[in-house]
C-alpha cells in the first residue's frame, strides 16, 4: 500500500504541485494524464522517492518513506524516468545486470533465469553486447523497461504488492513496441505482481489500458477515479482546451478524436 497525504512540491517560491492525497492499496493500472507542465512527472517523482516533498507524508506499507533505506525500497518500487542517458559506457547487459545488484542473497541461478526470461520477452537479445548510449531512443526505452522489471523480481513469494513507476515510457517507441510495453505492464497488474503508475499522453491508449486515471492541470489533481468516470469527453476537452469527442465503434471499442475543423471550432477564414 502507498499512502500519500497532502503532499506538495515547490521550488524558489513557485508552487509546482498543490497538496494532494493519493492512496493505492490493490493491484491497479493507474495513468496520470494531463497537459504539458501539469505536474505529472513531479508527482511520480515524489511518490517514487525520486524527489522530496515540500510538505505532507508518504508511506509504503504503513512505514514512512524517510524510514526506508534505498536498498530495501528498491526491491518494492522501481522508477523508469524520461531521460535515458547513462553517464558511462556500460553495455546493455551491464545495465540490466545492475538491476540485480540489490539481490546479493539471490542465487545466481535465479538471476540468470530471470535475466534470460525478460531479455527474451522484451526481444532485447540483438543488442545485449552493445554500448547502451549508442542505442536508438526506442531501444533505450525497451532496455530501461527491462531494467525496472528486473529490479522488482524476487524469488518465491510475490507479496507484498510492488510498484512500477513509468514516466512517459512510450516515448520513441514504434507502434508495435508501444502496445507490447503496455500489454506487459497490464499483465504485471493482472498477474497480481503489482501496480503500475504511468505518465502518458495518448488518451486512446490510456482508455484501453487504465483502471484508474488521475487527471492533472496546473499543478493540481483535478480528478481521480475510474477510467470511465474521469475520461468524460467534456472534462477532457476543458482540461486540454481542445474539443474532443468520444466515439464508440460497432464492436464496442471506445476512442477519442479531435472534433474536425469542419465544425465551428476554428475560424474558417484562417484556413
Ligand atoms: N526543479 C524545478 N524548478 C523549477 N521549475 C520546475 C522544477 N521541476 C518542475 N518545474 C516546473 O513545474 C511544472 C511541472 O513540471 P512537470 O515536469 O511535473 O510537468 P509534466 O506534467 O510532467 O509535463 P510534461 O507533460 O510536459 O512532461 C513545469 O512548468 C516545470 O517547468
UniProtKB/TrEMBL annotation:
Pfam family, one: ABC_tran
SUPFAM superfamilies found in the cross-reference section: P-loop containing nucleoside triphosphate hydrolases
Gene3D superfamilies on file: P-loop containing nucleotide triphosphate hydrolases
GO molecular function: ATP binding; ATP hydrolysis activity
CDD domains, alphabetized: ABC_Iron-Siderophores_B12_Hemin
InterPro entries attached to this UniProt entry: AAA+_ATPase (IPR003593), ABC_transporter-like_ATP-bd (IPR003439), ABC_transporter-like_CS (IPR017871), P-loop_NTPase (IPR027417)
Spans through the membrane: none
Originating organism: Fluviicola taffensis (strain DSM 16823 / NCIMB 13979 / RW262)
Keywords: ATP-binding, Nucleotide-binding, Translocase, Transport
Function according to Swiss-Prot or TrEMBL: Part of the ABC transporter complex HmuTUV involved in hemin import. Responsible for energy coupling to the transport system.
Domain ABC transporter, first and last residues per copy: 2-243
Name of the protein described by the UniProt record: Vitamin B12-transporting ATPase
Amino acid at each position: 500500500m502507498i499512502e500519500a497525504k497532502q503532499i506538495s512540491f515547490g521550488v524558489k517560491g513557485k508552487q509546482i504541485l498543490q497538496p494532494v492525497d493519493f492512496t493505492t492499496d490493490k493491484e491497479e493500472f493507474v495513468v496520470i494524464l494531463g497537459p504539458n507542465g501539469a505536474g505529472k512527472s513531479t508527482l511520480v517523482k515524489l511518490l517514487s522517492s525520486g524527489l522530496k516533498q515540500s510538505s505532507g507524508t508518504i508511506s509504503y506499507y504503513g512505514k514512512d518513506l524517510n524510514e526506508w533505506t534505498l536498498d530495501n525500497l528498491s526491491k518494492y518500487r522501481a522508477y523508469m524516468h524520461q531521460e535515458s542517458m547513462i553517464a558511462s559506457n556500460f553495455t546493455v547487459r551491464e545495465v540490466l545486470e545492475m538491476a540485480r545488484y540489490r539481490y546479493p542473497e539471490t542465487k545466481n541461478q535465479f538471476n540468470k533465469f530471470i535475466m534470460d526470461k525478460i531479455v527474451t520477452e522484451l526481444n532485447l537479445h540483438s543488442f545485449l553486447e552493445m554500448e547502451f548510449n549508442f542505442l536508438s531512443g526506442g531501444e533505450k526505452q525497451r532496455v530501461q523497461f527491462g531494467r525496472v522489471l528486473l529490479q522488482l523480481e524476487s524469488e518465491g513469494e510475490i507479496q507484498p504488492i510492488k510498484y512500477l513507476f513509468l514516466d512517459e515510457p512510450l516515448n520513441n517507441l514504434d507502434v508495435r513496441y508501444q502496445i507490447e510495453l503496455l500489454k506487459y505492464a497490464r499483465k504485471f497488474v493482472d498477474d497480481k505482481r503489482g501496480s503500475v503508475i504511468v505518465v502518458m499522453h495518448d488518451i486512446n491508449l490510456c482508455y484501453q489500458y487504465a483502471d484508474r486515471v488521475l487527471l492533472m492541470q496546473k499543478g493540481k489533481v483535478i480528478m481521480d477515479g475510474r477510467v470511465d468516470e474521469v475520461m468524460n469527453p467534456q472534462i477532457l476537452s476543458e482540461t486540454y482546451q481542445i474539443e474532443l469527442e468520444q466515439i464508440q465503434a460497432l464492436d464496442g471499442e471506445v476512442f477519442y478524436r479531435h472534433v474536425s475543423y469542419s465544425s465551428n471550432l476554428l475560424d474558417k477564414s484562417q484556413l
